[in-house]
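The records we work with from here on pair a chain with its fold. Here is one such record, which you should read through line by line:
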Amino acid sequence: MPRTADKTDIPRRLATAGYELFKQNGYNATGIQQITERAGVPKGSFYNHFDSKEAFAHQIIRDYAAWMERQWALCLADAPADPLDAIRHVFGKFIAHHEQSSCPGCLVGNFAAEMTESSPLCRDELSRVMRMWQVNLAGLIQRAQDAGRVRRDLDALTLSAFFWDTWEGALLRMKVEHDSRPLQDALALLLDKFLRA
């Protein structure tokens, strides 16, 4: 492999390969050798940048969370002003993404199901990411509550946590059924029934 002056090139290639393989095969079924082969780098290069596979997975979670933050902001940039319509718009875009993906699903949800008992490092990062997502959505729910569009018997953060729990469950069913209908049904039930004032 030719040398490159860009010190971020190899870590970036490893991260791209790792994300793809983790998304496709899961954490336990993906080996470092597979990651380095997919990235096109010598196996020893992995340990020049990451102390362990666990540390690498931790970084992949952080990268995925940063990507999700950017997607959230992009979706909100062209969302309707009404907060409930904005939620429908954002999650409609997420559904479209999953429909177009060759390997649909949520890396955070997949990792949460697979490795929370074996990796406190990754579990803490997954918990941080999920809290961040809940806070982001809670902001929209709070605006909808203030406008009288969403029920007020539960606080916005509680409703947001329930929303995300439902969404992640629907993602799992989508993977089993190879159909985005569980996501569409969950979104409709949440916005048109459960959250309504």
Notes: The mean pLDDT is 93. The radius of gyration is 19 Å. Residues 120-146 form the longest helix (27 residues).
